[in-house]
Amino acid sequence: MAIQSSGISLSIAALSARLLEEREVSPRARITAQILAEALPGSAVNVYAVAPLPEGDVWTVMATAGEPAAPEATIPLQSGTLGILARDPKPLLFEGRSLSREEYSHVNVRRTLHSLSYLPLTRNEALIGAIEILSFENTLSQAHLNELGGVADVFGAALYGAQIYEDEHHNTLESITRLTQLYDIEKVFSSTLEMDQLFPIIGSKVREMLECEAVNLWLLEADESLRLMHQAGNDFTARVGDLQRPGEGVPGDVSDNGEAVLIERSDDDRLLRRNQDIEESGVVSLIVAPIMDQESLVGVIEAANKLDGSAFDDDDLFTLSRLAESAAIALHNASLLAAERKVEVLETLVTVSHEITSTLNLERMLQTIVNAPQAVIPYERAAVALEHHGKYKLSAVTGVAQLDSEAPEIAPLNNILRWALLAEEVIHVKQHGEEISDPRPETQAKFRAYFEETGMRGFYATPLSDDTGRVGILGLESSDPDFLSTAHLEILQVLAGQATVALRNAQMYKEVPFISVLEPVLERKRKFMALEKRRRTLIMILAAAAVIFLAAFPLPLRVDGDAVVSPAHSSKVQPEVEGVISRVLVHEGEKVTRGQVIAELQDWEYRSALGQAQAKYQTAMLHMNHALAGNDGSEAGIQRVQADYWKSEVDRASARLDQTKLRSPIDGTIATPHVADMTGRRLQFGDSFAEVVDTSSVLADVGIDYTDTSLLRVGAAGAVKLNSYPTRTFRGTVEVVSPVGVVQGESRVFFARVAIPNPDGTIRAGMEGRGKVSAGWYPAGYVIFRHAGIWIYSHVWDWFGL
Predict the structure, then answer these.
(1) Phi and psi torsions of 469, nearest 5°
(2) pTM greater than the 0.85 cutoff
(3) 375-398 as b/e: b if 16+ CB within 10 A
């Protein structure tokens, strides 16, 4: 079909074919506008589509062609001549002289308009667009307009089909985008297993995807109530930490029935109840979805108020439900990690409890109580104070072996524990900024001063008491005010109970020291008297022989300890003058003799000074000889004085020049690593260039326990077996017994320094091994039972000594 009348030549078939080549709205609109503009010379053709917007429908420009007459991008639906078409969608024709400029102000024209005509684009009797034709050279007649109706019909169908295609394409893209976002969110949710870090991630990502004002994450408590664990955004109807049960709100109802909820209207009774106590903006639209883990409710997630002001719809609820499934997986994985950590904590707690209850040694038990719980509780310092017969005593502090309660770093802790013990209740005080958590003014003042003095910000103290009374108090502190979580407080309660029982048993055991000895002795006596007489006699004879052996037979007594080798004599080579090392003449490990030059400093300055002094000296001597030759005694005397002065300067310059040579102060071996690489380094007074050690003899420092110190004598024989030479024994004599002990491990030791000949240099400084020092010959009983006797005597003295 073709339109070929009234000067218009247009092929509907050709137009349809070209329209079918394109699938989208804009290309089809552009083709139609171009074809009409070509068929109507001197005209401008604009193609519009009706676009729905929240504030009202508008005309949007899809294509323009022909003469310049650019329309506005969007035009109100009821504006001007387009408004007439919107009210009565049929072909319209206006003569240019009959229209005012305001009626077609939506187009920018600068020429005289002869006619303005419109072709409505409809589908199923609904207006979907329009074709606007502005004629500037010829006037378009009604007959022409009617003939162009076929173009409108064809393009109307093409426009409708293109809009359907674009809507489907857009929906497909939205679905793909939504799936991609869901996949990305699942990856983000799975990026961490830390519960505290997961809550903000879930809240922020859900809020970002739903484009809403707030997202609340509720988790199920043990009593089947919901607690608000995290809030992303601002929702003034709920606060983090709130509890909600079924019937108390929408989240509680969802937790009860497990069904998602969509509330679109702000006048819904459920939202009115939620907003009734809120002065600020409340919730006007809400979606809530349960978080299910294998058909078990984990929590509830809700989103409030879309950012664009519109209400949530079913698509938003579907999206939230899918996000809740991803959140459930992430929370499940995080809970597994938390459960695994809890198992580890419980295992560690069992180990700590076993250590506490496995001994009746009070000192060891106290050290275990203040040190071992650090494996499960992140405190910086713990302390235990005991109360015995009404007397208070600070008994153990973390990391302190020798406790002095009056020491500057211990005294504040001692005073605060004494005060906490009198309070007879659990004390838990935290400082955030300048705020002290305790409501009592006197407690705030006390802890503000204590925290300022010690640098701590968190303190916890729990009394140790049982049915028979108070045993003491356990205190913990840290520079982190929130170092104790709910789980840590539960652990501390268990630990405090076990520590109380263990300390009470240890105190009772210490008060009755012979009870564990007397019972076995009496039992053995009963068994011995039950034996037949002959066997009792034999046992008594053997016992007497053993006593004689122990009392009369001599055995050598030796005390031993860890040994470390050090050189008997070492000396450091230091410069007598400052300067830069110009040459090193030795290497590490090279043997040197006393006075041997081992390095040289740059000496050109000293050589120059020596040369000048020598020249001055020679000049003075020449002048003196010349004066003597001329019988000028006074001049000769002056020159003699000058010559003597410059002679002393020559000697001094020679000595300073000689000081540029670094010499070994002793016979020995160079011990400094990479000494040859020190060329070019500048040495100043006090700097050490190298160390020379004399290895012809060495000293082995044997650490003897403080209980054996009384047996050490200078000149006693000593023997050392080194790890480097396991089959050899090196012998020497004790030259020095250290007057001061040092802490080594859990004990205090004194060093017996054994001098050992080392003519072949076999032993080297730093070697380690085991050493023994001879203490003489003693009865076998003394040698065998000496340590046991000392232990018994010390405890008897503790009980009865003055």
Answers:
(1) 135, -165
(2) no
(3) ebbebbbbbbbbbeeeebebbbbb
What's the whole-number mean pLDDT along residues 654-665? 81
Question: 118 with 63, same domain?
Answer: yes
CA distance 27 to 24: 6
Here the CATH number for the domain that contains residue 70 is: 3.30.450.40
Please give the Cα distance from 71 to 91 (Å, whole number).
Answer: 20
8 Å CB contact between 202 and 301: yes
Residue 257 lies in a domain: yes
Within a domain: 560: no
Mean pLDDT of 563-579: 81
Beta bridge partners of 565: 700
Average pLDDT, the chain: 81
Closest by CA position to 36, among listed 54, 63, 59? 63
Q: Which positions ≥6 away from 97 have C-beta within 8 Å?
A: none
**Enclosing domain of residue 379:** 359-511
Residue 627's SS3 state is helix
Which is higher by pLDDT, 221 or 509? 221
Q: How many domains does the chain have?
A: 6
455 and 398 co-located in one domain = yes
Kindly state whether residues 584 and 493 are assigned to the same domain: no
How far from the centroid of its chain's Cα atoms is residue 430's Cα?
22
Judge if 231 and 374 occupy the same domain: no
Which pair of tokens denotes residue 792? 């018994």
290 and 363 in a single domain? The answer is no
Asked if 214 contacts 235 with a C-beta cutoff of 8 angstroms, the reply is yes
pLDDT of residue 2: 45
Residue 7 has pLDDT above 60, yes or no: no
Per-residue confidence band for 477, with pLDDT thresholds at 50, 70 and 90: very high
pLDDT band of residue 185 (cuts 50, 70, 90) is low
Q: Are residues 165 and 18 in the same domain?
A: yes
- pLDDT tens-digit series, residues 129-144: 888 888 888 887 787 7
As given in the structure block, the two tokens for residue 222 are 């043990």
Read off the pLDDT of residues 479-518 as tens digits, 9 standing for 90 and up: 998 888 877 888 888 888 888 888 887 777 666 555 555 5
Nearest-CA neighbor of 354 among 498, 186, 170? 498
Residue with tokens 């000396």: 571
CATH number (domain holding residue 757): 2.40.30.170
DSSP 720-747: EEETT-TT--EEEEEEEE-SS-EEETTE
